Each structure stands twice: as structure tokens, then as C-alpha cells.
């Protein structure tokens, strides 16, 4: 790997199941940014590769298209890397099945982002026996 390639990062942009943008629209928007990126269309969205600041800008713009339904994660290898490219290796690439499982959860993550609820990390206290008996008697009536 050359020094130029080692300074680049790769991110996956993943469209959630309820995304208001299609995969071709995402790719078109990424190309319209005219950023110095390598953009690869994928079944789940896109893979972008380039200088970190440029990739981060593209990811931020993509997330702004549908903040609650566009997700991103690091990818350790650039698009087309022969160590991971399924065209060169055959079959699904390593990590694809993990991505499938993560995709199944994205609907829940989207819903949580769209409708945030206050949660408490404080452990609930136990109900005293007397209180429990009182509630039980009220339920019998």
C-alpha cells in the first residue's frame, strides 16, 4: 500500500429500511458533491474512499438527506481491494453476513432516533412486602 493510499479512509453509507432516499439517488447525490472520492455503489448504499476530511464531509451530507435512516460505519479496506473484493475471491465478502444482521436492527434504531424517549439508568427499587400486599388486595376487589 502506498503512502498516498494509507492516508485514505473508507466508510460504508448504509440506507435503513425506511429511508426516504433510494440507493441510486444516494449515489447521484454523492457524485453531485464533486468531491475527490472513490464512490462504489452497493446493495445497501455506497462505499466512499478518500482523504478523511473529504469522506467525513460526504458522510455528513449523506446523513443530512435522511438523518434517522442513513447510517455509516468504517470499512477497513478500500473499494475493489483484492483481499476483500468478492469479484476476485468469490462468494460473499467477509463481514457481509454481519452487515445483514445489523441491517435487521436498523428499523429499531431509526424509530429510536425519530422518537427519542427519556430513559433512566437508575435501577428500580424493590417494592416492600406491605405495599405488594396492599396492591394485591386492591386487585382482588
Sheet having the most strands: 4 strands, antiparallel
Strand order in space, largest sheet? 2-3-1-4
List unreliable stretches of 5+ residues: none
Which CATH class is shown? Alpha Beta
CATH-defined architecture: 2-Layer Sandwich
Q: What is the CA-atom radius of gyration, in angstroms?
A: 23 Å
- Percent range for helical residues? 40-55%
Q: What is the name of the CATH superfamily?
A: Malonyl-CoA ACP transacylase, ACP-binding
Note the overall shape.
elongated
* Structural domains: how many: 1
As a percent range, the share of strand residues is 15-25%
> Gap between N and C termini, in Å?
76 Å
Instruction: Provide mean pLDDT, rounded.
Output: 83
Written as H for each helix and E for each strand, in order along the chain, the element string is HEHEEHEHHH
Tally the beta strands: 4
Question: Which structural class do you get from the secondary structure elements?
Answer: alpha+beta
Instruction: Tell me the CATH topology.
Output: Alpha-Beta Plaits
Continuous helix count: 6
Oligomeric grouping of the chains: single chain
Note down, in words, how this protein is organized.
This protein has 141 residues and is an alpha+beta fold. It has one domain: Malonyl-CoA ACP transacylase, ACP-binding (Alpha-Beta Plaits), CATH 3.30.70.250. 45% of the residues lie in helices and 18% in strands. The protein has helices at residues 3-6, 23-32, 52-65, 86-89, 96-114, 129-140, and strands spanning 8-15, 38-42, 45-51, 70-75. It has a four-stranded antiparallel sheet with strand order 2-3-1-4. The chain starts with a helix and ends with a helix. The relative contact order is 0.16.
